[in-house]
Every structure is written in structure tokens, then in C-alpha cells.
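REQUEST FORM: STRUCTURE PREDICTION
Request ID: SP-0412
Submitted by: Lab K.M.
Chain count: 1
Length (residues): 389
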Amino acid sequence: MTDIHLLEPDNSPEWSPFAQCRPICELRAGAWLIRERWEAAVDGEAVAVYSTKPMHAFVEEGVPTVSERQAVAGPAFVARSDFAPAGVKTTLPKSPARFVNEATTVGWWVPRGATWEGEHADWVEVEIEGMLLNGSFDIITAQEHFLAPDALDFAHETGDPLPQGSVVIGDPADVVILGAAVEPGTVFDVRGGVVVIEQHCHVRSGTRFEGPVYVGPGTEILGGSISQSSIGPRCKVRGEVTHTTFVGYANKAHDGFVGHSVVGRWVNLGAGTTTSNLKNTYGPIRLKVGDVSLETGRQFLGALFGDHCKTGIGTMLSTGAVVGVGANVFDFPSAPKYVPPFAWGASNAVMDRAGFLKVAARVMPRRQVEMTEAVQEMLGTIYDSNTNG
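STATUS: Completed
RESULT:
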């Protein structure tokens, strides 16, 4: 099995709000994390992530050590975290090689005896299928490209019998249930793609799925319309959700529309939280990150929710909203297009460091995740690096 070293993009506004709280390789592109897509593409295992110093404290189950960029001795593969490979397994040549997508180098194969130290323009080129991501907003674009084929891959697995009382619109073989509890009255519309429900999930009556949909292990779907979305592990989701990616461990347990959005880990969306995903002019959507404006080229884009952020009941978010890590959004008549990291309500205040850690220590055990000293140090470092504390 090939060792994979993941090279993170620069911490630029394009990658807000996630570059401030987690490696980009740990974002979900389709059904799988970018790291998992690389592991499948080159039949390897990620052993290192190279990023800027604030991320060096990052710890999470399954994530390799994060450190400064360094030379890599073969045999190994160096992969860019801002590229999401398609589901095609790649053959590694005997000689050193640059893996290229649309004339852009996105990875390097380093055989035994060779060393990677940078671009290596003289190495032989090998084409690789996939998608280069230009920022956090392209997680939605990647989902549009990858979710349908990712879900279709599960159709080859032997799943559970279709639950009694379910309604299927389309081919019943496109409903793949892998050890989940699905209550009677659930509707599966699979005319547009496969619906996959992983093990230990619980789906309540009154839920309508419109494929392609992927629901990760241990997630609870509590009712509503879930369409063309990828939901990571241990989430709670209810209401109208479309074209949205949940990285995992998030809570949207109440009604409210969330569309074309990316929801980070440990996010809690209060009852009635609603995103706008289309401008009244039907024009392209621009992001605002601090004083920087970013063109996305997308007509549909909701909100980007950084890890550990929270919204109060009835929160309304404008098209292309960016909510920073740890922000607490409440008391707004209409939330601003950009909410800075660790913002506290509408008063321009910043959440207290000790208070943030205390809340995280309450939240994480609710999903059976221990608040270890290493996790506490990581969260403290993220707080300090985002507040200049």
C-alpha cells in the first residue's frame, strides 16, 4: 500500500471558513472525504498532511499528523488536497511522475530511490481524472460531479431488504440500506440516483429522499425532504435539505431550508435556520470574506458553515453567506453575509476562549467523542489563531 502525503493549499480567503479550522483534505467531495478519494485513487494510505503552523495542533480520528511541508523520499505519493480524484484507480509507473489534470499538476509519484521536493517539471506526465477545487464553494461543485457515481458504486453491494411500508419511485435496487433502521412511510425517489443509508442510521417516518443521496454511519434523519445531498457520520438532520454537504457530527434537528451549502463538523443550526441559495437576479454569486470579495461563478450557493459555529432560532442567511469557525449567530434581524470567526451575536463581540472550550466540552460527548487534552489544545490553538489572542 502506497504512503500518501497530502499537500494543503495556502490559507487564503477562498478556503474560508474551513482553512481556519481543519485541513482541506478532510472536507467531503461527493460521498467521500478528499483524503479518502486520494486513498482510493492510488491504492494508498495517508500518512502525513502538510499545512501552515496553526493546523499543526489538529487532531481527529483517522487524520494523519499535520506538519510543515518537507521533502518526501520514495516510495510515496504526494497529492494536492485541493484536487478531488474521480473514482478511477490509477496505475503508478516505475519512474518518477507528475499527475496532471487539464495541464495542472495535482500529484507526484515518488518511486523508491527518488525524492520529491517541489514541482519537478521534468518528470513524466500522467493524466488523472478528477476536479481541481478553487475554494470551499467548489465542494458543492464536486458534489454535483461525484455524488451520483459514488452512490451508484453502492448499488453493487448486497443491502438489507426494502423496509416494509416504504414507498419507492423508480427501481427498488437503487435503494441501498446497509444495516440501518428505516421506519414505515419513508419515500425513496431514486429516478435521479441511488440512495445509500449506511449502518446504524435511523430514518423516521415522514422522510422523503430524492437521489442521489448518501447518509453516513450513525446519522439520524428525522423527517423532511432530503435531496441530492451527502451527509457524513453522526449527524441529525430534519427539514428541507438539497444539494448540501455535511462533513459530519453536525446537528440540524429542526425544520428550515438549507440548500447548496457546506456544513462543517460540530455545527448546530437552530430551529428555522434558513439559507438563500439563489439571488433574486438569478446572477452569479459573490462571496465576502472580511474585506475580500470572491467570484464563485455559481448561480446556486447557500452558506458555508465553519466547524463549531451555531445559529439561533429563526436565523436567515443570505446567498453565499460565510459563517466563521466557532461563531454564534443570534440577535440579527438578518445575519450579515460574512460572520467572523468566534463572533458573538450582533454586538461585534468575540466569544470568550474559556466559554468556547466549555461549550465544545459539553457538545462533543453528546456524539460519544471524548474531549481529550489534545483536542482541547487543538481548539485553543484554533481560537488563538483566529482571534489574535
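NOTES: The mean pLDDT is 96.
Reviewed by: T.R.
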